[in-house]
Amino acid sequence: MVSGSTATRGHSPRIGGFLMQRSVNDCCPTCRRTDHHEIREAAQSSVGRPSSGDSRSQTLGVHPDHNIHGKMQTYSADDHNTSIYSVNMEVKNYFYAIAVHASKMTVGERFPFLILYGSETGTAQDSAERLWRLATRQGFDARVMAMDEFPITDLLYERVVVFVVSTTGQGDPPANMAKTWSFLLRRSLPADSLAKMWVAVLGLGDSSYAKFNFVAKKLHRRLTQGLGATALCPVGLADDQHDLGPSAVIDPWTIDLLDHVKTKDVRLLKMRLPKAEKKFSYSPGDVVYVTPSNSTEDVDKFFDLFGENGFLRSNILKLEQKYSGVSVPSQLSGKSFNLESCVRNYWDLNVIPSRSVFEVLASVAEDELEKEKLIELSSPAGTQELYDYCNRPRRTVLEVLADFPHSRSHLTLDHLFDLLKIIRPRAFSIASSPLEDELLLLVAVVEYKTRLKAPRLGLCSNWLKNLPEGANLTVWIKKGSLRFPLGADQKTPVIMIGPGTGVAPMRSYIITEHLRSTDDRKRPLILFFGCRNQNADFFFSHEWSNIHNLELFTAFSRDQPQKIYVQHKIIQQKEQVSKRLLADKGVVFVAGNSKDMPEAVSAAIKRCLIETGGLSEKEADDWLVQAIKDNCYQQEVWN
Questions:
Q1: Domain 113-261 top-level CATH class
Q2: Which residues form the Flavodoxin-like domain (predicted)?
Q3: Predicted local distance difference test score (pLDDT) of residue 612
């Protein structure tokens, strides 16, 4: 929280966080307390040494109400302007790693796709072009044209094709698709001609006619059943006679289509430990913590925004302790550092701002319009307004600062240390076995759209994605919440449910068991894995067939019209699941997204116990409660 006083550029009151002092005479009486350290000019250290004429040294002090918690460690990456910071979190097992490779585990980017229309009166063309506009606004690489304008021979090389067609006369195709229509209906075409293609068909018709949407229905059937294409979603049959018109079908069909076309960009990050760190050990289920840096693009935006404030990349800063018991964060303590290093490695420019950001801005605002808005956003009465402005569109603190230029121009470095949050470390489940030479992380790259024009990017996942090969990074390991049975009774079955990136800790355990067990002492392992598409995000698919004591059950939710998830596969194996858990005293491990999956999985397992295990509903509930208490049912889920 900030104090109620306002600030000018010539005076820096204590507003929480840090206090930057220029001279004793410029400070408030509180800042001249005898328990403060002597104010001194920051030394011109080798960290970000400015050129002659650019020297602007300033000393900052820590106040007891600053918002930094936890002990932090600093490591110099080299003799230049870069430092590698890692939050220690009371764990001493931190170590250097070298990024070896960050390969894609999926197709990665949004699929480029082709939209072909067959239109007689222009309605289907309008719908196709509207779909194209919507897709391009969401970042898809899409093309749109009449069906007969596209070379038929090139169709075989397309990955995703969307057909928007109308029906004319007595079930006839429009004139601008007649040639392609005739070609696709040839009986001489092999049944697997389009086996590598994903298709979607939207029909526009009128149910008052006997052959309502005949062309769309026949085209969809021919593409999928006759030529081997895979349907992205069910055929859409828009109807002019619907009370809401064709949009009643077109709008939800379009949303479903674009959701199907999206794929997650998942990277397998391989890290090699220096020889001195080979002694470092971990167990399956452990997690790695990584502290990222801001992107160069965001750092440049920061200095563009604050150019008129006199903030230079080469500004030399130094933090000093002002009250006993309140220590300077150690990665900024005891040395001078330049402002660019602080902006890149310390302040989180990607975070969604809290109310306190608007309190700080309101305290310095002089423009009446901005001040009124800032006071509203920082007040309890403006909670809904704050949510609509920041949380719903996921607006970053950098974007907020850009929206209030007049107030931003009055911010000092003191304010920024109070306003901007520290970059927090991110945790990732380890996908490698401790018996392997490399440390593997399965990282889902976060990128999504809101109503804001620019896509939202996850700070850490995109930083890891863009790490160059050979980059040095500091990571550390903590015990995860999953404690797999190691060296215990080899007869105890282990059932693992790990959809998506939730398979990472499961792979760590499976590979460890595979490498350390002899042929006659291999534990029964069961893995339920789920993803959208087998050809896009079936992680580690090439490895599972080599592990003979592993039974693998897969759910590819988007490879068929009806959705199939891991809980459906569990129920399909209900006899084995109930036997392994009740008769064989097996254990269950669940990892993955926390939205709906954990509850759906536990409900599926209870259903297995009821339908084939002979338990009543209450007994199944009691079994689950006891299994969780005994660590026989363990979960690690995340947002």
A1: alpha beta
A2: 113-258
A3: 96
